[in-house]
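FIELD: query
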Amino acid sequence: MKICWIDLETTGLDENKHGIIQIGSIIEEDGVILDKFNIKLKPFKLDFLSKNALEINNTTIEQIKKYTNPLEAFDKFQKFLSNHVDKYDKYDKLILAGKNINAFDMKFLKRFFEKCNDDYFFSWFHKMGIDLNTTTAEYMIFNGFISESYNLKTLCEAFAVNFNEHDAMSDIEATRKLYYIMKGITVDG
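FIELD: result
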């Protein structure tokens, strides 16, 4: 099974009014990293930019103006995906994985496809994802793990995983490492 680890940096929390400004992704199969994708992109013109989100991302409007056009970024992302999936084969799909993937990243990514006039999101991806939040809950139950917080930074500190917080590629690399640590599986990368 192929997994598409993905993290998005966004201009806010609502996929219907905010946009994506960074996509970090790792595609793996059987625990082996096949490819990585990392791009910073401009939000669409109608996307709202939350001041709080920009502060969290340590991003300025001036920086965003220099990012890749969203349609160009979408084209590059689809080319990346097409290196690993035949979107016309209903059995050849990626499982999305990440921290809070089902409640956040998958919704933003699906909305990004829609904003790019592409209704074929599920031609690339399965409808369910692997969420580190669920894995953390399982780890808590079976290993008695308790933490003051379950955000990515606190989890990385608890498991000695280094990362650069709020950079999509660094976040997803850390998320992937945490997942395999909690599952007790050794993989590359």
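FIELD: remark
The longest strand covers residues 20-29.
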